[in-house]
């Protein structure tokens, strides 16, 4: 079973507390989402593999560490996931970025892919799927399945706020995926919003309300 890690870092908790406030406008909301993604990325990359390499400093030869293992990719789920990309790339600038977009078919209620563009070598990369809100888990589970169907094998999921219902659904569907969460909230309401949550993350990032 993949791990579920709720980030307890004080800076993350403090910043999540700020963006929950309804009076915070799009500019600040967007900036802070990006900062949180940056701190979360730092925590979620703690276990990346290192290897020894011999180098020469201006003084002498020595051995230093460098990142080894798989290269990285970030895949935001459109549209709110876009808000986390810049923060992720601040920490891992060499990562490639894919995009995945889904909508829910009004008749079948099944998620349907409307956009997917991934790095060509995505199957060889460690892929961080990002979406600020893990609510019912429907789109996250479907997005990860689509990535697996396209040959992606190593997937981690990162969200800023999660509902227990979404975490359960994700773990049941994709037990191999590690899940990184900024704050685990109480529940979903009847409209599928996370409580207490922060409202609609996409609308707040892009000012579309
Ligand atoms: N998506 C959001 O943006 N907010 C929620 O509370 C749930 C899903």
Instruction: Work out the strand percent.
Output: 25-35%
Helical percentage: 25-40%
Q: Number of domains in the coordinates?
A: 1
The SSE string, one letter per element, is EHHEEEHEEEEEHEHEEEH
Bound molecules: uracil
Per CATH, the class reads Alpha Beta
- Low-confidence stretches at least 5 residues in length (pLDDT < 50)? none
Radius of gyration: 18 Å
Shape: globular
Annotated CATH topology: Rossmann fold
CATH architecture descriptor text: 3-Layer(aba) Sandwich
Major beta sheet, specifics?
A: 7 strands, parallel
SS summary, helix count: 6
Coarse structural class: alpha/beta
Give the integer mean of the pLDDT values: 96
User: What is the end-to-end distance?
Assistant: 39 Å
Number of strands: 13
Explain how this protein is built.
This protein has 209 residues and is an alpha/beta fold. It has one domain: 3-Layer(aba) Sandwich (Rossmann fold). Helix content is 31%, strand content 31%. It contains six helices and 13 strands. Strands 1, 4, 5, 8, 9, 10 and 11 form a seven-stranded parallel sheet that branches. Strands 2-3 form a two-stranded antiparallel ribbon. Strands 6-7 form a two-stranded antiparallel ribbon. Helix 1 runs antiparallel to helix 2 and helix 2 packs across helix 3. The longest helix has 19 residues. The protein is globular. 35% of the residues are buried. The model has no long low-confidence stretch (mean pLDDT 96). Uracil binds next to helix 6.
């Amino acid at each position: 079973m993949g791990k579920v890690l709720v980030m307890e870092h004080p800076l993350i908790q403090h910043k999540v507390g700020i963006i929950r406030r309804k009076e915070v406008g799009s500019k600040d909301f967007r900036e802070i989402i990006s900062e949180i993604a940056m701190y979360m990325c730092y925590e979620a990359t703690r276990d990346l593999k290192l290897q020894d390499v011999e180098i020469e400093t201006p003084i002498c030869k020595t051995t230093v560490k460098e990142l080894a293992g798989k290269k990285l990719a970030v895949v935001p789920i459109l549209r709110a996931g876009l808000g986390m990309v810049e923060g992720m790339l601040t920490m891992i600038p060499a990562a490639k970025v894919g995009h995945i977009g889904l909508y829910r078919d009004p008749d079948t209620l099944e998620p349907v892919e409307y956009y997917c563009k991934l790095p060509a070598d995505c199957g060889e990369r460690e892929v961080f799927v990002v979406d600020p809100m893990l609510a019912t888990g429907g789109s996250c589970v479907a997005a990860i399945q689509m990535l697996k169907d396209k040959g992606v094998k190593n997937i981690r999921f990162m969200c800023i706020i999660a509902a227990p219902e979404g975490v359960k659904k994700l773990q049941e569907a994709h037990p191999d995926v590690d899940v990184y969460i900024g704050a685990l909230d109480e529940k979903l309401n009847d409209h599928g919003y996370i409580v207490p949550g922060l409202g609609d993350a996409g609308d707040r990032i892009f000012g579309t309300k």
